[in-house]
Sequence to fold (100 residues):
Amino acid sequence: MAHQLIDYYKAIERTSEQMLAAAQAEDWDQVVRLEGACAVLIAQLRFKSRDSDLAADERKEKAKIMQRILRTDAEIRCLAEPWLNDLASIFDKSSPAPTH
Fold:
């Protein structure tokens, strides 16, 4: 059962890599879809991890996977930032000016 647990981390890493590729292609709809898939995997991992633990070597592998996921996430955020700023400016233009 513990082996299945590390498979969730690997699947999350693969999904985050796919998210990065989609962000690099500026396919933001795909990024959002993959983010949803990642959220499902994370929820499944949380559920499974209640009943099992990783072996020592798997914990080391998990740490390396998590570091790679964090780096990938940072790259996605850098790519998404201009898109998010554009989105914010669209909302700012459509929102009434605040009154004080």
User: Anything to note?
Assistant: The chain has one domain: 2-92.
